[in-house]
Structures are given as structure tokens and as C-alpha cells.
Amino acid sequence: MDEDMKHEYEEINRRVIEMQGEILESIRESIAIRSVKGAPAPGAPYGEGPKQALEHALKLGEKLGFRTGSMADRVGWVEYGEGEEMAAVLGHLDVVPEGDGWTYPPFGGEIHDGKMYGRGVLDDKGPVIGAIYGLKAIRDAGLKPDRRIRVIFGTDEENGSSCVKYYVENGGELPTIGFTPDADYPLIFCEKGQLGWTVVRDRKRTDDDNCREHRPAAKLLRLEGGTARNVVTPHCVLEVEGTLKVTPGDGISVREEDGKTTVMAIGKGAHGSTPEQGINAAKKLFQAVADADLDEDLKRMIRFVLEKIGDETNGASLGICYQDEETGETTVNLGIVRGTPEEISVTLDIRYPKNADRERMIANIKAAAEEYGLEARLESQARLLYLPKDSELVRKLMTVYREETGTDAEPLAIGGGTYAKTFENMAAFGPVFPGEQAMIHQPDECADVENMIKSYQIAAAAMYELAMKQ
């Protein structure tokens, strides 16, 4: 890095430090708004809280002397500079519900022992407000970028990102290059592609299996487990009428009462992108009752899970295992299991690396389900995001990060998905530093104040770097 660029970074850093008190106060104001999605109202498609958070950010941009804009009360932006092309920072102002277990007020923005507490301080109000002040640092330093810089903020990211989808589908200007401060440092250059499935056995239809004379000793009443498709099943319960042969095992319990047998399995939850870090309770339960006298529909589903997934997490038995040295391997997570007298289903969260054949994966999963008389329904998907390490975006962001932190960090490939998939040529970049505990979506969401300010310095330098064409 040449001396002129180092001097520009130093000037940006200095001005962010000078504004620290003002930045933290603006973040407190935003945190004080409970911007959880609510009932739609006129001028407030996601409820009053997200609308108020949007208005607060727009008013802040206006107060600081920047151009502002919004679209349908769903997404807004603050912009600085001139030029035909636009570099963007993409964040969001909506938050998940606070939940219980807070030590300090969830909407207080209080600082204790060097940490600011509050829902959204990390995800994502703090980084959005920090980026708006980053524009001020760039402007006040007298820097003239080649591209305009726009800080874009949605208000429905936590519930599917319909806000930015609306922006794209209704003619919002698309950035040439950009980043989202809604993940981790140093930078995420690859986010695996995702396929969300439900595998179903419809018990209402009549076929040869359902017309058989044999009746099982145990009639299915209820099968229930899991919290979400992208979470390893942490607990699972099977309730049947009659008695049931159950193979003992760790975490398996059985209760017989009033002519019913209830089998419970306890596992360990984990994110669906890293299923190997969890213990799947549904698999444990299915293994425990695999030899029981159950009706054929339930046995079909159990055999499918045990034979086509089993203890694997890479999809080998499904014929979808791909391995790539740079971007990892396929992961398969069994998430939700449900069974009633009418239908039995399980969900699968599948994530794949850069070298995977997506169409072949889809065909193989459908064929595997059909072997057991089941139907595999593809219900959601997200594209693979891959940014070459020598691309302008990755190269510039990594230069900024290394210069600002004095480290030789390398970019990351992850199984999870971020806001970066919204636009082309965008990467997830911060705000959580390596080794830093991220309390995102948890009670006592907080951020170290020193790290917050450092992150905003990095973001401001990155904004300026991406806005320069050379």
C-alpha cells in the first residue's frame, strides 16, 4: 500500500474516533426502537417498529447532510459522492424478538464493562449506523471517490429479506460492488448453495401397501421433533397406540401409559450448515424403533432416513456428496420430523460447494425418496455465492482488513447464507472479529465498544476503497 493511501486510512480512522460519542448515541437511539416485525399498517408494511427504525436512519442521514431515499417504506438509503457507478453497504434495521434472560434492558443500549448491550447492536443496527458515519468520515476527510457510496438498509431481513427483494424487483439501483457488515471478518468469499426439502409420505392415499391385511401392533398417533429445517433435531417424540419394541440407548426414554407407548429421544442442536457438530435426536429415535412392529408408512420413512442419511452428514448415500478443497463438501441436515394419521414428513437442509452439480443433486434426491415410496419436494433454494480471491472485491476488502488489523488473515468459505446473496459482486465483511463471541439473536446481545469503533473504521476505509476504480 502506498503512502498516500495509508494517510487516507489514518485520516478516516481519526475522524471516526472523533465521532465516537455521537456514533454510540445514534446507535442507542436506534436500539431503543423495538423494530420487530409486526402487523402491517398504512405506510408501515412490516409494522410500526421497523418503520420507525427506517425513519430514524433517514433522518440521521439528512442531519449529517447526505442525500437520502426510500422505497415503499420497506428499504432506505443514505448516499454520498458522484459518479455513474455505485458502491454499496447493505444492512438491516429490523431485529428478532428480544426473548427472556437479559441482564440489561434489551432496548437500552447501555454500556457496562466496555460493552454495549441491546438487540441489534451487532445485528445489524450498529453496523448500519456506523456505516452512515463512515460516509461522514470520508466526506470530512476531503476524499473524492470515483463511485457514489450508498448505505442501503432493509427492514425485513430477519423474516426473509422481502424488503431488498422489493427494491431489486421494483427498479432500485443495483450496486457495482459492495459488502454487507452482517457476518464475520476477515471476509466470506464463498457461501454454499442451499436446497430445502420436505420428504413426504401421504397416508391418505390408497395403494397396495395401505390395503394389506397386516395391522401393526403399534398404531402411530404422533411423531414430532425439530425446531427448524436448518437446525439439527434436538429432541424427538414418537407416540403410538399399543406396545412397542424399543432398543435401549443413550438419550432414549420410554413411557407406557393408558394403552399408549411414548418414546423420547434427546440429542444436541447445531446449525444446519454444520450438522456434524450436533447429535440428531430423530435419527436416534428411528434407530431405537427400527425393529418395532410399526405400520408400513412409518417404516418406509424410518428406512429412508437410516439407509439414505444415517450417521452421514455429507450425503454420500443420497449420491450428492461433492468435495472441493477451496469451498468444502456437501452437508445434509435432518431438521423437522412430523407424523400424524394423515401424513409423515421430514425436512432436509442441503448445502453444496462450488464443484457440485445442482441438477444431478435434485434428481438423485427425488429418486432416492421414490425408492421408498416417498415424495421429495424442493421447497426453497439459495444460489451459491463465490467470489474469486483475486477479484477486485475480495482483493480490496482483504487489503483494508489486513492494513487496519495488522494481520495476515485469509478469507473464509462458509455453509451459512448472508445478506450478500441479495446483489451480485457483494461479500459479507464483518462486524464480528475472529475469536469474538457473537451474541447475535441471543439474550444479552452485546458488542465490545472498542471493537465496534474499530469495525466502523474498517468499514469506512472499505467503503472508500471500493468506491475507487483503480
Q: What would the keywords be for this entry?
A:
single chain, about 475 residues, alpha+beta, eight-stranded antiparallel beta sheet, six-stranded mixed beta sheet, 10 helices, elongated
Structure description:
This protein is α+β, with helices and mostly antiparallel strands and 470 residues long. Helix content is 29%, strand content 26%. It is built from 10 helices and 24 strands. The protein has helices at 3-18, 20-31, 48-63, 125-140, 162-169, 281-288, 296-308, 358-370, 392-405, 449-467, and strands at residues 67-71, 75-80, 86-92, 111-112, 115-117, 148-154, 177-180, 183-184, 188-191, 193-202, 219-225, 235-241, 252-257, 260-266, 323-324, 328-329, 331-339, 343-352, 375-382, 385-386, 412-414, 426-428, 431-432, 446-448. The strands form 6 sheets. The protein has an 8-stranded antiparallel beta sheet. Strand 1 and strand 2 (75-80) form a beta hairpin. Helix 1 crosses helix 4, helix 4 (125-140) packs across helix 10 (449-467) and helix 9 (392-405) packs antiparallel against helix 10. It is elongated and about 80 Å long. It starts with a helix and ends with a helix. Mean pLDDT is 93; it is low at 206-212.
